[in-house]
Specification:
By secondary structure, the chain is mostly helical. A hairpin with a 4-residue loop joins strand 1 and strand 2 (62-64). The chain has one domain. 31% of the residues lie in helices and 5% in strands. This is Reverse transcriptase. It comes from Lithospermum erythrorhizon.
C-alpha cells in the first residue's frame, strides 16, 4: 500500500482491522461497484481505476475509494442512503472518517 501512495495513518488503521489472512475480493462481478451500475459521473480513485475497485468490505466496516470530487462524493452518499432505505441500516457519521491524498483544501472543505 505504501508503494501505491496510501497515507501511513490509513495503512495503520487498516492493519489494525485485518487480523486474519483470509480475505476476498470481488472484481468484475455483479456487485463490482457504482461504475458497473452505469453512473458516468463516478470517478475512481486514481490508484484503483485499473482494477475497478470502488470499495473494500470487512465484517462490519467498509472503505469507499473514489476521486475527491463532488460528483463521486454525491454518488457515494446517495448509494449509502439507498442502502439504508432498503435495509433499515444507517452509517454512523460519528464513527466515519474521510482520508484525502493530495487534495486542495477548498475541495476538502466542500466535501
Amino acid at each position: 500500500m505504501l508503494a501505491m501512495g496510501f497515507p501511513q495513518r490509513f495503512i495503520f488503521l487498516l492493519q489494525c482491522r485485518v487480523t486474519k489472512a483470509s480475505f476476498s475480493i470481488n472484481l468484475n462481478g455483479t456487485m463490482s461497484g457504482w461504475k458497473a451500475s452505469g453512473d458516468p459521473e463516478f470517478k475512481f480513485h486514481p490508484r484503483c481505476q485499473q482494477l475497478g475497485i470502488t470499495h473494500l468490505s470487512f465484517v462490519d466496516d467498509m472503505i469507499h475509494l473514489a476521486s475527491a470530487d463532488m460528483a463521486s462524493f454525491r454518488i457515494i452518499k446517495e448509494t449509502l442512503s439507498l442502502f439504508g432505505d432498503l435495509t433499515g441500516l444507517r452509517f454512523n457519521c460519528s464513527k466515519s472518517m474521510i482520508f484525502f491524498g493530495s487534495t486542495p483544501e477548498a475541495t476538502k472543505i466542500a466535501l
